[in-house]
Amino acid sequence: MVLEHDRVLAVSPAARVAGIRPGMRRGGALMLMPDARLVERNPAREAEALDAVALAMLQFTPQVALLEEATLLLDIGASLRLFGGIRALCVRVQASLRALGFSGALSCAPTARAAWLLARSGAVRIAHDPGPGAGARSSARAGRRCGRVLRMATLERRLDRLPVALLPPARPYMSWFEGIGCDTLGELRRLPRPGLQRRCGRELLDMLDAAYGLCPELFEWVTPPEQFRARLELFDRIEQAELLLAGAHHLVLQLVGWLCARQLAVERFTLLMEHERGRVAMPPTALEVALAEPSWRDEHLVRLLKERLARQELPAPVIGLGLEARQVREMAPPSESLFPEPGGSEEDRMRMLELLVARLGPENVLQALPQADYRPEVANEWVPVQEGRGGARMDARLPPDVGSLPRPSWLLAKPIALLMRNHRPFYGSPLKVASTPERIEAGWWSETQTRDYFIAEGQDHTLYWIYRERIVGAGEDAEPRWYLHGLFG
Amino acid sequence: MNCSPNPGVSPLAAPEALHPSLWRASQLARSGTRCVDTGHAALSTQLPGGGWPVGTLVELLQQQPGIGEMRLLRPALQACAERRIVLLQPPHPPQALALAALGLAPSQLLWLRTSRSADALWAAEQVLRSGSCGALLFWANHTRGESLRRLHLAAQAGETLFFMLRPLIAAQDASPAPLRLGLRPAAGGMQIDFVKRRGPQRDAPLFLPLDLPITSSLVQRHAFVDRTIATPAGARHLQPQLVQ
Fold first, then answer.
1. CATH number at residue A303
2. pLDDT lower than 50: segments of chain B
3. Does one domain contain both A236 and A178?
4. Are residues A69 and A155 in the same domain?
5. Which residues in B lie closer than 8 A to residue A348 (C-beta atoms)?
6. N or C: which end of chain A has fewer CB within 10 A?
């Protein structure tokens, strides 16, 4: 239940079942439902929530305005084509509203004030189920059940049926309107204009004209801030990192709106997890996400965060989340090609790699970086794929006669010392040497290797790469030792 | 009768003419997907569609790694090498030089290591769904049937060549893979058992000669005389054991 000046303002569905209605006094409500949770209305947090929604809505259109009575206005005239029509756009606006944790009444109309009126009429109807957030209702010029009107004639018919009380300037004169039997906007318009202006003021007529498209409208559009920094207070102490994802999604949606409005793409961002201020103050845990390819799409950012959060361990319960865009660059929209490649674009490839790195860790997603060295272990170097070396440079590091070197596909991480049976190396079965030796002797500057490599064949005809230490310590261990070092895949 | 292309012939006489997915038990099926040539003519004629099917789970069952599986797959991997080739959880570290000798450039290789099998399955699914890789080779030891089915479905979404290398013991278990081959090493090549294919049952293994991809003078071309070991009786009593 949300209270304002000891009057019930909004109630949850459970409270409504108990019979509590908006407008009741605190005492009456408590009598009907003694264990109700009462929350005082907090205008600052409502304004904060509305700002957050406005920021997120910037991804649909650059022209977003805050209007009176917790209403947001989006000018979508230029966005229709990009988002695939009015229906698709409405669905997306609703979806991102839901993801932000708010419910709203959406309506759209050819004039801004008419859209506002339709949304307000819808909001009054559904006012009794506020969002789980601060209780802000947001409406937009774009449609829930309460109305999507696209043509002027339909709009006039719809507007004529709306109650007069929706117009804020008309509210002080409601008793007079009731007295003369003027309930709807249609009846209001039929009243003589000079008389109406004298009694109720210029403002009412202006608003009426704006709604019916008879006079132009001016708005103060929301301007996105220079730096992006958003904060979110969680409703509970959260101890598992995965559960933070829903909160992080809110922030990412705001980030995406900000990026779209400023035509930027994010390269690096930080998710700050604030801990409880207990006896020991603990600095917030930072989760830094660096992107190989700058992005401005929320699905990709959320998927990355999900994988990173799954690996994160929290030192203490989290009570707040913050998101900061650390590094941004100009947005470069992809150019669509007429014949798409079967393998997807380079961005798709980068996105897949990023996702793999996010879950498996950078040390487990490797690419080859052959080194110019004779020693097989040193030559076979693999580096994390994100170190970003050019492919051509890597291929150029190969020896020119790579085809003439007998190298096994699988190189054992650590050579296995082989048993000797009847003066033959033994690995499952006696090994038969099938090639002349290849002598590798290098590395006096770090790790000396003096080895003779052979290809050997087991009794089941598997090929092995074995070597013999050529220089062994003098003394009791003078026998040459054999090692298994690779398998020919 | 309308669907038969030739009204004079009963559809039962040639059911394969009715629909591309129909075939007789004595025939090889025609593949519904694109196939990549195996590069080995003897093997290609034994496979439905005449090659490795893309976007399908193909199981290769082997006793141990390192018996020539990369040489077997070399022509097919070369054919799709303009896109990346992902090695997921290989049994040993792959050697870039050897793979380059097989014709796979180091810049096209991606080696994924995972600590848990759930991560490996997840990574395989991500690679298959993204569709931006040419081939995925996945070494898995214990995989449950529903995971295989899930991977098979994920593979169907794209055009990635998908091989799963599993231990030979898994041949006894059921699998949704339409093509399962058992690999065994043989002198100078490899024996291939057809565990499952869309075609007639074949019990006799297929011998496939596989050369080492090197033109070096190191490899001796002449045959060896297999001398008897001096004391065979002693060796027989000992339990053969792996040396760690």
1. 3.30.1490.100
2. 1-4, 229-238, 240, 243-244
3. no
4. yes
5. 130-132
6. N
Say yes or no for a CB contact (<8 Å) between B130 and A365.
no
Q: What is the CATH number of the domain that holds B48?
A: 3.40.50.300
pLDDT at A294 over 60: yes
Q: What is the pLDDT of residue B4?
A: 45
Q: Residue A111 sits in which domain range?
A: 59-223
Residue of B96, B113, B131 lying closest to A370 (CB–CB): B96
Residue of B nearest to A386 (CA): B110
**A310 interfacial to chain B (CB closer than 8 Å):** no
Which ipTM score applies to this complex? 0.81
pLDDT of residue B107: 84
Q: Please report the pLDDT score of residue A4 as a whole number.
A: 66
- pLDDT, mean of residues A70-75: 76
State the SS3 of chain A.
CEEECCEEEECCHHHHHCCCCCCCEHHHHHHHCCCCCCEECCHHHHHHHHHHHHHHHCCCCCCEEEECCCEEEECCCCCCCCCCHHHHHHHHHHHHHHHHCCCEEECECCCHHHHHHHHHHHHHHHCCCCCCCCCCCEEECCCCCCCECCCHHHHHHHHHCCEHHHCHHHHHHHHHHHHCCCCEHHHHHHCCHHHHHHHHCHHHHHHHHHHCCCCCCCCCECCCCCCCEEEEEEEEEECCHHHHHHHHHHHHHHHHHHHHHHCEEEEEEEEEEEECCCCCCCCCEEEEEEEEEEECCHHHHHHHHHHHHHHCCCCCCEEEEEEEEEEEEECCCCCCCCCCCCCCCHHHHHHHHHHHHHHHCHHHEEEECCCCCCCHHHHCCEEEHHHCCCHHHHHHCCCCCHHHCCCCCEEEEEEEECEEECCEEEECEECEECECCEEEEECCCCCCEEEEEEEEECCCCCEEEEEEECCCCCCCCCCCCEEEEEECC
For residue A347, tell me if it sits in a domain.
no
CB pairs under 8 A between A and B: 215
Claim to verify: residue A374 and residue A427 sit in the same structural domain: no
| A246 has a chain B CB within 8 A of its CB | no
pTM: 0.68
One domain for residues A286 and A306: yes
The rounded mean pLDDT for chain A is 76
Is A233 in the same domain as A206? Answer: no
Measure in Å the smallest separation between the Cα of A56 and chain B Cα atoms. Answer: 28
Both A317 and A388 in one domain: the answer is no
Q: Does B188 touch chain A (CB under 8 A)?
A: yes
- Pick from A370, A407, A488: CB nearest B66: A488
Q: Which residues of chain A does B242 touch, with a Cβ-Cβ cutoff of 8 Å?
A: 427-428
In a domain, A164, yes or no: yes
Residue B79 lies in a domain: yes
Show the domain range for B78. Answer: 35-212
Q: Which residues of B touch A462 (CB under 8 A)?
A: 64, 66-67, 185
Which A residues in the span 426-445 are in contact with B, Cβ-Cβ below 8 Å?
Answer: 426-430, 432, 434-438
Residue B25 lies in a domain: no
In-domain check, residue B189: yes
Q: Do A359 and B123 touch (CB under 8 A)?
A: yes
Asked if residue A91 has pLDDT above 60, the reply is yes
Question: In chain A, what residues touch B109 (CB-CB under 8 Å)?
Answer: 367-368
